[in-house]
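Final report, closing paragraph on structural work. Over the funding period we assembled a curated collection of sequence-structure pairs, and we close with a single example.
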Amino acid sequence: MDTFRKTDIAMKLYESIQNIIKFADTKINVLSVINGIATSYILTNFQLIYSINIYSKLLLALYFIMFIVFIYYLLNTILPRIKSISGNKISRAVYFGHISERKEVQEFVNDFKKLNDEEFLEDLLTQIYESSKIATTKFSYYKKSLITLQVQFSLFFILLALKSFT
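Its predicted structure, as stored:
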């Protein structure tokens, strides 16, 4: 397979991975909204729920612990950190962070013009790998946040039932 064909396939793969990363961000935002609605209800009715009995106090404490855990996973989903593996050997012409490290636009233009097909493909493949690591990290934390939200919702419905029956 020639370099042009490899680059074309790699670019499609890169775009696909970028879309997967956007999808993870969208999904965590939906969970955040759902969590916000439930937590707003709990905060609005805090005094009433807190005063029901000792179980309501314990459940509220557990709810807020799970809320903090959820926020931790949410932030790690939104802001994944991976150790960059791209050293100075590659051209660094694909990732916006690498591009913006140049002091002047002309420096980037000159670097890009000097690239041959193989160097560009190597940079693109490196970015595919790093983006894949980011996507994996995002979905791992998303899954943990989803589990945390499920526990929170279980507590929410128990608290709602306690409030309803008092």
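The chain has a mean pLDDT of 90. The longest helix spans residues 117-164. We thank the funder for supporting this effort.
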